[in-house]
Specification:
The chain has 305 residues and is of the alpha/beta class. Belongs to the LysR transcriptional regulatory family.
Length: 305
């Protein structure tokens, strides 16, 4: 029995669409239709009821689905445990938030390239809200973002936290430190995207202090926020790892603000049915890189102290 046909059957069952499955598997709708037809001929049963608007599992299809998932999962686990690193191949569609791009993501990509050279990576960098939507639409195999994903047949791992601070250009005429959060309200605020957790944290801290930011602008790019802050166009909250280079070069300074911003908690999410060996493997690698990054940060803080 052709394993690719079983994988195609599982994705059609999940997405209820031949065209969406074709997009997900990077093939044509005709190829998906032919694989399902061939599988139905081999099994001697009809797996789907089709009409112009929808695709639905038949009773025989529902009975076959869990067994097909078991076969694919066990086969992938066997391949992952026995095969050489060159045998793990395929395409990984991964989404990641900007914050990890400026911290440990480059080390993760280098490790993927060195360990599994036959794996092709399709990387999307966007906000957590956008990445979560793409993951729920099965457009991504692995999502690295803020907050866990709570859903059936989804594994969600906590990867670690990225400490954050407030930053401004050295020539900005800010009050003497330490600064209460209320003292920043009169300055332009360069914030994360509207609706994101860091954006909501900023609003909550201002509200708790009984003030409202005079001018708050929202961005989905940390690089843009840093450039604008370096040009004295506002104060901004950034992951400390992202700002380190600008601090060393003297383009930004860290502000001692009370209360300090909370860290960004990063999670990895991937589906367990059908199991994706590449996504599972890379999630484990991401966890190791995030933990190593956190240890390096703590060691540097200890040396500085």
């Amino acid at each position: 029995m052709n394993l690719r046909f079983l994988e195609t059957f599982i994705w059609v069952a999940r997405l209820n669409s031949f065209s969406a499955t074709a997009d997900r598997l990077h093939t044509t709708q005709a190829a998906v239709s032919n694989r399902i037809a061939a599988l139905e001929r081999e099994l001697g049963v009809r797996l789907f009821d089709r009409d112009l608007r929808s695709v639905r599992l038949t009773p025989e299809g529902r009975a076959a689905l869990s067994r097909a998932e078991d076969i694919v999962r066990l086969t992938q686990e066997f391949q992952g445990a026995i095969s050489s690193k060159d045998a793990l191949r395929g395409r990984l569609a991964m989404g990641a938030i900007d914050s990890v791009v400026h911290s440990w993501l480059p080390r993760l990509i280098r490790r993927i390239q060195q360990t599994y050279p036959c794996v092709e990576l399709d990387l999307t960098v966007d906000t957590s809200l956008t990445i979560a939507g793409q993951f729920h639409r099965s457009e991504l195999d692995l999502a690295i973002m803020m907050g866990p994903v709570i859903a059936p047949q989804v594994e969600s791992r906590f990867l670690g936290s990225l400490p954050c601070s407030w930053y401004a250009a050295p020539d900005m005429d800010l009050p003497a430190e330490p600064l209460p959060i209320a003292s920043l309200a009169a300055w332009p605020i360069l914030a994360f995207s509207r609706g994101s957790k860091p954006h909501q944290d900023i609003l909550r801290h201002f509200a708790d202090a009984g003030v409202k930011a005079t001018a708050l602008s929202n961005f989905n790019s940390i690089a843009t926020m840093m450039i604008l802050a370096e040009d004295s166009l506002g104060v901004t909250m950034l992951p400390d790892a992202a700002a380190q280079g600008a601090i060393t070069a003297g383009r930004l300074r860290r502000l001692a603000v009370t209360p300090p911003p909370p860290p960004i908690d990063v999670h990895a999410a991937y589906t367990t049915q059908p199991r994706n060996t590449i996504a599972t493997t890379v999630a484990s690698m991401a966890q190791a890189e995030a933990e190593a990054f956190g240890r390096r940060g703590r060691d540097e803080e200890g040396d500085a102290g």
